[in-house]
UniProtKB/TrEMBL annotation:
Pfam assignment, any one: PFK
Phosphofructokinase domain residues: 3-275
Name of the molecule in the record: ATP-dependent 6-phosphofructokinase
Presence of the UniProt keyword Mitochondrion in the record: no
Gene of this entry: pfkA
Gene Ontology molecular function: 6-phosphofructokinase activity; AMP binding; ATP binding; fructose-6-phosphate binding; identical protein binding; metal ion binding; monosaccharide binding
GO BP, sorted A to Z: canonical glycolysis; fructose 1,6-bisphosphate metabolic process; fructose 6-phosphate metabolic process
Organism: Alkalithermobacter paradoxus
Protein residues bound to ADP: 21-25, 154, 185-187, 211, 213-215
Amino acid sequence: MKKIAVLTSGGDSPGMNAAVRAVVRSAIYHGCKVYGVNRGYKGLIDGDLFEMDLSSVGDIIHRGGTILRSARCEEFRTEEGRKKAHNVLNVFGIDGLVVIGGDGSFQGAQKLSEMGFPAIGVPGTIDNDLAYTDYTIGFDTALNTVLDAISKIRDTSSSHERISIIEVMGRHCGDIALYAGVAGGAEIIIVPEEEYDIDEICKRLIQSNNRGKKHSIIMLAEGVGNANEIMEQIKEKTGLDSRATILGHIQRGGTPSAFDRILSSQMGAKAVELLLEGKASRVVGIKNNEIIDMDIHEALSMERKFNSNLYKLASILAK
């Protein structure tokens, strides 16, 4: 293993830069050359690679986003597109690839591995929706971004005695809504993993209002529905003043937390270690506070388990 390439793909997440930094510096420490790939799999197909050195990743551990940038690439989903990418890797003399991204990015790494090219996946997504790992890079930072927003929204919600519905990201995973809701003291949490009854929610809001609680926070995961639609339903059924806030891409930006910086550094270094050991088609994760690796096919086929105990606790504490 003399040359290693690294790319970031899919939605960006805070900590990706820290992971890139760890890959570059770990590889150089072990005597390897490192190439950065701009714009994910698109850059791989286009041959947009450049050699990186120690200074290439200086002063980036604290920066959100990704210096390698990211882009969607439909062409890579085709067999022809993957052959182009494979040829580019061979032309540049690359021996192994580190892919930092979510499940879609991992599927791309898996395809390359099936073509005989060593690829290692590092989980970079705020959604925390990969079943094999306890946490993904960026989740903790996004969680704290949402928590800060909850605090600010609660101030104005309290002042105006209104209900605030806060819609957060996560696709079909409710972890951001759940963890932020518990930490932020939300009265109601709506996630894709648990059924909800709008009439029951309205009943709880009316009861709270009648006993003197004039403001409430409702956390809504985007995979369930639209905040504005739920707001209108609540207004119609309760007559209570309500407002919707969709946090959107603010959750993807910002300085990564200490947890995400450390996690990214460990995972990036582990990916290089696996390539140097001659391992391919693996993904890096964290389980019970230990950095682990697993077969990529096995990891992607695992069923994600929702933290139902924490969800039940949230309901108890919100009463």
